Amino acid sequence: MKKYDRGWASLEIGAALLIVMIIVAWGAGIWQDYLKTKGWQAEARLVSNWASAARSYIGKNYTTLQASSTTTTPAVITTTMLKNTGFLSSGFTETNSEGQRLQAYVVRNTQNPELLQAMVVSSGGTPYPVKALIQMAKDITTGLGGYIQDGKTATGALRSWSVALSNYGAKSGNGHIAVLLSTDET
Which candidate, 35, 42, 44, 40, places its Cα nearest to that of 132? Predict the structure, then answer.
């Protein structure tokens, strides 16, 4: 008597293993996305700390910055300046994980030249992907977080604001971070 049912158990086990392998691959992709998002959140905290230090520096050196800036020519604040004056710790890195440097561009307000306004902009290094920029812009807690996608305009999180970099005398490229420090925050 011949048995035609032989081998079904092996086929079922093979199918189950295939399903498990697909689920593991899918889960690994989700885990990678989670790790990237956590890295971008850490970058946003770093930028927030930098912007907070720049805002404090502007507050303490308001009259000096007012004297050295115009509505079209900025006073530029660098990481080295913030470290040398104690607004950032000496161990604070000069560049972020993508090799971008942060600088604050401080200009006089065009409507009321007695007031200062500033924009923190990253430049150089490797551009971030658009997904990272959007996530980081939302996670920045000091000022109004944003990003530079076209190399000429800073755009706020959720497209809440848009400012030409030339208004601040700033230059950057695609895939960079921006933080708008409004007049009342400086």
Answer: 40
pTM, to two decimals: 0.85
Helices marked H in the chain — which ranges?
A: 8-60, 62-68, 79-84, 130-139
> pLDDT tens-digit profile of 1-15?
566 666 777 888 888
* Residues 142 and 80: beta-carbon distance below 8 Å: no
β-strand partners of 102: 122
Neighbours of 171 (CB within 10 A): 13
**pLDDT, tens digit (0-9, with 9 covering 90-100), for 72-90:** 999 999 999 999 999 999 9
Contact 80, 94 (CB under 8 A): yes
Percent of the chain residues topping a pLDDT of 90 = 87
Distance CA 158, CA 162 (A): 11
Region class of 37: left (phi > 0), else alpha (psi between -120 and 50), else beta? alpha
With vertex at residue 161, the alpha carbon angle to CA 36 and CA 103, rounded to the nearest 5 degrees, is: 65
- Cα–Cα distance for residue pair 172/107, rounded to 1 Å: 17
